[in-house]
Amino acid sequence: MLTQMIIKKFVNDHENTQDKKVREAFGVVSSVTGMAVNFILFLIGFIIGLSINSIAVIANSFNSLSDATSSIIILAGFKLSNRVADREHPFGYGRIEYLSALIVAALILMMGFEFIKSSFSRIINPMPMEFDFVSFIIIIAAIPLKFWLSNFNKSIGRKIDSKALLAAGADSFNDMLILACIIFSLIMSNFFNINIDGYVGMAVALLIIWAGISIMKETLGPILGQPPDAALVQELKRLALSYENIKGVHDIIVHNYGPGRSMASFHAEVPNNVDIMALHEDIDRAEKEISEKLNIFVVIHMDPICMDCETTIKAMEEVAGIIRKIPDVSSFHDFRVVGDGEFKSLIFDIVIPFNKKEPKNIENSLKDEIAHEVNKIHPKYDIIITVDRDYTAAEI
């Protein structure tokens, strides 16, 4: 309820998440909210930590300060990533948002390692903790606040597809677990006279480091290059195949230049018996319309295929039957029969996933296996096979 009220009040046209300005407004609202909440929690936690002499509480308070700083970096990332494309960066500055999340992860890791040292020192030289009931209640009250902030960031992160905000949401959830650990430490110290403050501080530090590593891993994916969303690939195929002269789609590659900034290219199989100018007009129209519908930049390469040659169609059906029995091959395309008489060349590409070890050995083995099976039917055919990888998924 509160999340929706904030969104409706501060984000105009909040349903239009594809609009860059709307997306930036979401980022600003989330970042400012995160800064305010985390700075308040830092002040409260730091004062309480000093008053009860708890390294775990102080560690968590500085973690809140780190989260407030992270919100500032995320805010800067949203602002900078929305800069207009120029000659130096023709696809825009969208990846700055990923870099901002990477900086946040680095700050979290630094904070975690610092408090590992402090907690280890407290384990070696334990000091008594002073229990204060009011402070204890304030720490408990911070848990639902962190829980709300986590859901707030995750909700907006999912809405606008922001890894930076999803990471901030996950970090807030970890903070909630950390507060629970601190409460446990205070209870053990006051009611059972067992001082585990240094050990809990160590656990807090390790959770902080784990959060930093998780955020870094999530952020490095799109920067280094990862498979596109499966739903996007399926929709791309569906739209392409809705055009009359596009009979097949393959070699799909999607480059991510930041949230809402992608370029896709693929090969479209078209009939070889249709006028080339008519085909070119259809492909141009498909590029324009698919680009507009999916909000990505689409480039299509034409691959002519034989639609009326009985020899080619029969050979294609034979190869399809062979490939269906080979689980390591997901599909084939660019099928051609070249030559006259008994001696012909069968030329085609096969697609295999990336989840195979020693790819060269597997590629050669698959080509030999398929060629052997085809030659059982056509002993005099020369089989020329090219192996492609599926760039739309890590596994099939």
UniProtKB/TrEMBL annotation:
Domain of life, per lineage: Bacteria
GO molecular function terms noted in the UniProt entry: monoatomic cation transmembrane transporter activity
Membrane topology: Multi-pass membrane protein
Spans through the membrane: 25-48, 54-76, 96-113, 133-152, 173-192, 198-216
Protein location: Membrane
UniProt domain Cation efflux protein cytoplasmic: residue ranges: 228-304
Entry keyword set: Membrane, Transmembrane, Transmembrane helix, Transport
Keyword Transmembrane: yes
Residues in the signal sequence: none
Pfam families for this protein: Cation_efflux, ZT_dimer
Main location: membrane
GO cellular component, one term: membrane
The Cation efflux protein transmembrane domain, residue ranges: 34-220
Annotated InterPro entries: Cation_efflux (IPR002524), Cation_efflux_CTD (IPR027470), Cation_efflux_CTD_sf (IPR036837), Cation_efflux_TM (IPR058533), Cation_efflux_TMD_sf (IPR027469), CDF_Transporter (IPR050291)
Family assignment from sequence similarity: Belongs to the cation diffusion facilitator (CDF) transporter (TC 2.A.4) family.
Full protein name: Ferrous-iron efflux pump FieF
Organism: Oxobacter pfennigii
Record lineage: Bacteria, Bacillati, Bacillota, Clostridia, Eubacteriales
